[in-house]
Every structure is written in structure tokens, then in C-alpha cells.
Amino acid sequence: GNREHYYDPRNSFIDEVLRRGVGLPITLSVIAIEVGRRVGAPLVGVGLPGHFLVREQGRDVYGDPFHDGMRYDRAGVVSAWERLVGDGTPFDELHLTPVSERTILIRMLNNLRALYLPKNEANSSYALAIMRGGFSELAHESPQHARWVRSLN
């Protein structure tokens, strides 16, 4: 994981993560999921609040690519909860539920939005607005999306 420059936008792009060998929990997890798929070891994404893990499909075996591939069983995730997601977030079993590929992509786009909007980078923000506009799950953003596209175009 890129602990030194966590908020570097390059940590959110798979090609950059592969080239540089560092990234965010979610991008490293996506790479692990895809490698697992290719070698016959099915992994799924687990979207904890503020962190992301992989889980062996059908088993309570979790991996944390951001923390050097740390492995946990269910009890291990629960005991490391505060370190993984921060103090003050209560544990809920639902946090260990595998998330869909669309959910992963939306979360990655949310990360980029948090990075690009404060910087007011027109090209990046415009591309991000177009990508986010393709998700029905983000329909509640329609008025904001239209304003972004107009102002950034």
C-alpha cells in the first residue's frame, strides 16, 4: 500500500498501480481478485468503511493487500477492526458481505471524486462526471452531474 502518498490520484488507476507497485486498498484488492480469478482462486471484495479487503469466496478467510497481504479469519478481522477502519465505527456483520463489481467501481469513482473536486481540475473532473453519469445507482446526482458537465465542458 502507498502509505506515504495515500491521496495520490495514481493510486486509483490500475495501470499506474501495476507499474508503480503501490496503490490503495481497493485497487490492490481489485488486482488480487483478478489474479485470483486467473489462477482459479476465487476472491471477492469486502468493502469495509474506510478500508477494503478480499475474501476467499465461500470461506471466512480474508486478505489485506494494502498491509502486505495480511491474512485474517473472521475473528481476526473483528479484532483488527479499529486499526483497519478507525476508531468510532461500530462493527457490523454486514461489513463482511462481499460487494459487487459495480459497487467496487462506484467506490473507486467516489475516491477519485474526493481527490479531484477540491483541486478543480477541469479535464479530470469532466471525465469523472461522464463516468459517474453511466451508473443508475448514482441517479440521485443527476442535477449535480448536469451542472458539472456544463461547467467543465
In short:
The chain is α+β, with helices and mostly antiparallel strands and 153 residues long.
Describe the structure.
By secondary structure, this protein is an alpha+beta fold. It has helices spanning 14-20, 25-39, 74-79, 81-85, 101-116, 122-132, 142-152; strands at 43-46, 53-56, 61-64, 70-73, 98-99. The chain has a five-stranded antiparallel β-sheet with strand order 4-3-2-1-5. Strand 1 (43-46) and strand 2 (53-56) form a beta hairpin. It is globular. The termini are far apart.
Q: C-alpha Rg, in Å?
A: 16 Å
Largest sheet entry = 5 strands, antiparallel
The proportion of strand residues reads: 5-15%
> Main sheet: which strands, in order across?
4-3-2-1-5
Individual helix count: 7
Oligomeric grouping of the chains: single chain
Helix/strand order, N-terminal first: HHEEEEHHEHHH
Principal-axes shape call: globular
Percent helix: 40-55%
What do the pLDDT scores average to? 85
List keywords for this structure.
5 strands; alpha+beta; 5-stranded antiparallel β-sheet; 153 residues
